[in-house]
Design goal:
CATH class of one domain: Mainly Alpha
Low-confidence stretches: 6-28
Order of helices and strands: HEEEEEEEEEEEEEEEEEEEEEEEHHHHHH
Helix content: 10-25%
CATH topology of one domain: Methane Monooxygenase Hydroxylase, Chain G, domain 1
Largest sheet: 8 strands, mixed
Shape: globular
Distance between the termini: 71 Å
Mean pLDDT: 78
CATH architecture of one domain: Up-down Bundle
Number of helices: 7
Number of strands: 23
Amino acid sequence: MKKGIFIILIIMISLNIYSQNILKIESNNNLVRSSKINSYYSIDSTTYIINKYSFLKKEYYLYRDSIIVDTLKSNGKLIFDDYTKNYYFIETNKNYGHLYKFDPNIGKLSLSSDNKYSLSCIYNNKIPNIDSVRLKTSIPILDGYNQLQGYKEIEINFAFQLSILDIQKNKKELLVDFSENIKENFISEIIDFSLFKDQIVFYTGYSEAGGIYNGQYWGVNIKSKKLNKINIPKDYDETYYSIDTKKEHLIIFKENFNTIDAIVFNKKFQNIGKILYRQNTIKGFKINNGVRKGNYYKSFLEDHTQMCILDNLEILREFALFKIYNDEFIENIENLSLDNLNLLKNMVFAKHNYKFDNEYYQAYFNLYNFYSLEEKRKIRTKDVNHLLTKVDKVNLKLINNNIKHLENK
């Protein structure tokens, strides 16, 4: 009797867990409440991938019409190949992983290969591969005033070859050979393999005491194998990156929450300007008919509710937002969408710490450092009209004219 009751309780608990996990969210919803969601992917209209922690492991749930069709416990992530329009899931564990192919039509994962890979980025059915060797090297010891105090010996991984693994042909093609100057260029991370279509961007340096030293960004052309050095300001010593949805721009951020700007590079790795520093933790993406519509970024509401917010990180919009924040006149905004124009309009008020009732604008502007700080949240206000500058008013007039033009169309 007790055994039967115990089994019934287990079944009821299991059903309760699954009922809590099933989420029916419309595909046009730009906000997803994410208090229990680690990643969120919207593929077409009915298939979703959500991962949650289940008994200290990440468990991925694949939904179709709110019904779980497949699950996978893993530490990997789903990625989308823009060229073959395929979805892949790479399950990673330290230096190895298994590649799965995801079929959104049936909502199933199938093992594509049992080869071992070290990275979760993909380009036209190809994956970058790093061959490294562990060696001893000496690094400088600096005091708080950046003065040399001496040297110490450490042991780190030096990359001596960067190659491409062809998943289908199971072949490896050499791209960069660092063997001759192995102690000068050693890779700690590959940033993004599909950036700029036929180029890999990667980062060299060594990790010590929680930081990256001698950090340097590089770009290598897959076809010509030409290596380019990406020059960033010296004060950007600890950085991280982001890429716009169209994969046309590389954005380098300082890893410093007190900063308010970031640098933008074009396809030729030329510095073309600055945008505002923003939160860029990607929680997933949205795909419609094989086209990537944007990424879901981690954000929060005024009451600290965690959210996934859909955004495509459009550079022209970000340049305009940067100018509005810095009280500069904006121009050339006629090609922006109505949604982006409304973001520009509300930025005029957000820069003065306006308190939004709309959840989307709360989550959107909380992506930005200047708005999301706790001390700013405590003094939000609705009364900002008296704070508007002459430049603000000119910018508002231009934005409103463009909004009216689109609405009349």
